[in-house]
Design a protein that fits this description.
single chain, 7 helices
Length: 164
């Protein structure tokens, strides 16, 4: 399975749903050291309602784990830029997989993004954010990433296991 970002996926912030935009905006704010910006806090409140505090905290855990556990540098655009990086496309897709309960898709994308086997904190943190968005009617679009056997092979390869 090819878990690399899809060049046909949205490449511009204006093509994203509100929930997808929030995920990218929050990641950019985190990287810029502005995750506590009042505008970001307000947008979590708007998008997640009563679960805003928990969703923002879970997002912070997800972003911190990317920094701490990733084996490669994640490319994130500066706040305000319309163009999405391929890594940002993958991050949006990860949250969509979490919202859909697609563990295999989530693991395959995460393994590609962090260049190592997936670990539990990522799924748990992304799941809190994704479900808070869903409970407020904010659906994230899930991209096709291939067949389930191919996903399993991609996860195994990323984990350093041999596949037949």
């Amino acid at each position: 399975m090819n878990v690399r970002p899809d060049p046909a996926a949205p490449g511009d912030l204006r093509e994203l749903t509100y929930g997808e935009h929030l995920v990218i905006w929050a990641m950019r704010a985190f990287v810029a050291g502005r995750i506590d910006c009042p505008v970001v806090v307000r947008e979590f409140e708007t998008a997640c309602g009563a679960l805003a505090v928990e969703a923002r905290r879970a997002f912070l855990v997800f972003a911190q784990q990317l920094v701490l556990r990733g084996r490669r540098r994640i490319a994130v655009s500066v706040p305000g830029r319309l163009a999405l990086t391929r890594d940002e496309q993958q991050i949006a897709a990860l949250f969509a997989d979490a919202q859909a309960g697609d563990q295999a898709g989530f693991d395959a994308r995460l393994a590609w993004l962090i260049a190592r086997p997936p670990e539990p904190p990522f799924q748990a943190a992304a799941g809190v954010v994704a479900q808070a968005l869903a409970m407020s009617g904010r659906r994230l679009r899930q991209a096709e990433v291939g067949s389930r056997p191919a996903q399993a092979r991609a996860v195994a390869v990323a984990a350093g296991r041999s596949v037949a």
